[in-house]
Amino acid sequence: MEIIETGQLQRIQAEDTEEYRVCRLFAGIYDVGRKRAHEWWRMGLRTLEDVEKRKDEIKLTRNQAIGLKYYDDLQERIPRAEASVIFDKIKELAMTIDGNITLYIMGSYRRGAETVGDIDILLTRDPSDGRTHSGMLNKLIRLLHEKGLLTNDLAVPADTHSLEQKYMGIGRLPPDGKMRRIDVLAIPWDQKGAALIYFTGDDLFNRSIRLLAHKKGYSLNQRGLYGGIIRDNKRRKMTEGVIIASKTEKEIFDILGVPWREPEERRRL
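Structure for DNA polymerase, as requested:
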């Protein structure tokens, strides 16, 4: 108990320093990690105003400059109602591109949270009619910019026709809503079930279900549940195996013997 209490006291003392508070402030800027934050501290920067004044000297990147500009808005949690409105508008615009496109809002929102850190969207399309969502994410990005829902791109897919892409950006409810982080992940239709599990979370649930899959001789990631895996005597994977389930969440739950859980019930196994 004394060791635990001593460790907690040391952590509290470490967090009660100017260096810790300043570095935490800097790390709140998009694309600024702990290493860069401490580097700025050692250079004598202490405030966001210092970062702005010395942006040329510290070689502030484009994305960091965007994160600095919208710092206050991006630090705020997004009310569920606002996230719903943004998602509904994005979904409405996506349907004008292709009426069979499917979008889900993911993360803590899908788990029923009243506030979210950002808006994570999953995009896919049933290819049973011979068409896929190839190229549709980039069309959607352009349309969202035209309508004022997106204001800044942080990461744009290089391959515009791949079925697996990730877009990261900043947007708002036009004309003058608060700036919010908006990410859109495009995935193949046949990976939908595994992706829904993975990007719904929470982290503890994901770790638990992946561990269960491992114990049962499988491997689970955002692309699917893999079987036929060969491991060495230390249980390290020698082969990746083959996907045996991925289209729906339920089929993965069933194979692993996990009773169905609604997204808001996914805390731990």
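The radius of gyration is 22 Å.
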